[in-house]
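Q: Focus on the shape:
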Amino acid sequence: MGTKNILMGLMLPAIIGASAAFAQQPTVDKQKLKQQLAEAPKQQPPAQSQDWAAVSAARHTVAIKKDGTLWAWGSNEFGQLGNGTETGPRGDGGGIERSALVQVGYSKDWKAVSAGGEHTMAIMKDGSLWGWGVNNCGQLGNGTTTDRNVPVRVGTNKDWAAVSAGRWHTVAIKKDGTLWAWGVNYSSQLGDGTKTNRSRPVQVGSSRDWAAVTAGGEHTMAIKKDGSLWAWGKNENGVLGDDTTTNRPTPVQVGSSKDWAAVSATWGHTMAIKKDGSLWAWGKNENGELGDGTTTNRSTPVRVGSSKDWAAVSAGAYHTVAIKKDGSLWAWGNWGYGLFDDGTKRPVQVGSSKDWATVTTFNYTAAIRKDGSLWSWEFTDYYDDDSTKPTKRAPIRVR
C-alpha cells in the first residue's frame, strides 16, 4: 500500500462520521502509522541516463540523447521547452511545476540544438531547421511573430549545418557555407546592414566560407574557413573586439589573425580559442568574466593566462566556463552562478574530475562527461524569493 492509500484509509472513517452529525472521530495510533509509513513501498527515481550527446543552456536547458531524442527543462514562460506548455520544470528532479525533464515531441532524429534567451532552435538529421518559444521579433524565422510552444519548421530547406540562438535573434550556417540571420535587429546584430527586424532568414553578405557562428545578446561573432574572426552588431564595452566601441551593421574582421578555432558570445563579453589552444577574451569585465585577473573592460582580445591546452569555452551571463584538453573543468567571474564558492578573476578548477567532454552556460551551466552523463549547476539567485529553498553549488546529476 502506498503512502497516499494509507492516509486515505485512515481518513475514511472520519469522512463517514462527518455525514452522521460529525460523530466522534477515531483516535490515531501514531506509532502504528509511523510503522506503516516506514513499511510502505518507496517510489524509485527514474534511472539516470548516460547517453547524452549534446546540451545547450540559457535560462532553460535543452539536450539531445545519443538516440536522437530531444529533452528540455528550465524556464518556460513562452513555451521555449517545446512540449506544448508554458510551465517550468527543471532537470534535477526538483521543480517549479514539474519534477523531471520533458521530451520535445517524439522524433529521434535531432542533430543539433541551441537555447536562446527565451526561444530554442534545432536542426534535424535531414538538415531541416526548427524553432519554438518567444517570437515577438521574428526570432523563430517562420515568417510570423507568434510565439510557439511546439517546434515549427523554418522554411522548407534541408541544408542547414549549424545554428545559434541569441537573446532575441538567431544565426545559422547552411551546408554551402552561407550565413543567415533573423529576429531582432535594432543594434544591427543580423549583419545585413540595416536595423530592420526579420521574421525570415536573410543572408549575411555573399560569402560562402563561414565555418562557425555564435549569437550573443546584441552582437554576433563568426569564424570563416580560413580561420579569420568576424564581428557585428552592438559594440558596448568593446564586445566586438575590433579596438573600438562603434556599432557595426555588417561584419568586420577582428584583428588580422587567421588561427581562430572556436568562439562563444554572450550578452556582455566574448571568448575564443585559437588553433594553438590559447584562450582569449574581450568585452565587459565587471565581474572578472574575462579571466585576465582584472575587472577592466577590453576592446581587443586579451590572453587568458599562458596555457595552450584549452579545448572548449562557453561565455555566460557574468562568468565563463571552459574545458582543458585533459578533461578538467574551469570557471571564473561572478561566483553567484553556482560553480564555486567565491568570486575569481582568473580560471579556477571546478572539482578534481578530468572527464568533462562539453560544457555550456548562461544562467544555468550544464556539462556532459565522457561517460555520457549530464550534470548541471544553477545560479544562486534563483531562490532569492524563497530563502527556505536550497542553493545548489555542486553539480547535480540530470536523469
